[in-house]
Amino acid sequence: MKGIVSKVALGVAGTGMAVAVAAVVIGPRVSEWYDGRHQEQASYATGSDAKADRRSIPTWLPDNAASVHYLMSTTGDDRLLRATLPEGRLPAGCTTGLPGKRAHPVPESLKAGWFPEGVATKVSGTCGHYNVTLTGNQLFAWQDGAAVQAALRAERPAKH
Q: pTM above 0.85?
């Protein structure tokens, strides 16, 4: 009987070790999958191609914008966008500066190799609900979902 108990104990310990090793090896991959599963990313040759493919691309993006990169959260309004603007100036309908506003942060939940860190410190203006930075002919734009929702609430008349 003593031999059976020690074999069972050894089996339980071995199984526990296997589960622990599996958790260490697989855990980070599961975390990456979970974090990224509510995001969609796409690249387009032109702004026209991007707008034709995806309704969430902002209408202010010029049709002739090139090398468009886009990352969005599917569970909110967080967005990142990068495009090359042939004219090297903000698109029509955008405003320079942040009159009466402060820049909203780049969404922490979105990360892309094509979107530089610290870009929010160089805000050039706004395009719709996006904050934008224009560096040469490179447009970097971001939209923070919480800021968008707050702005939409502020725009609605109060119900009495």
A: no
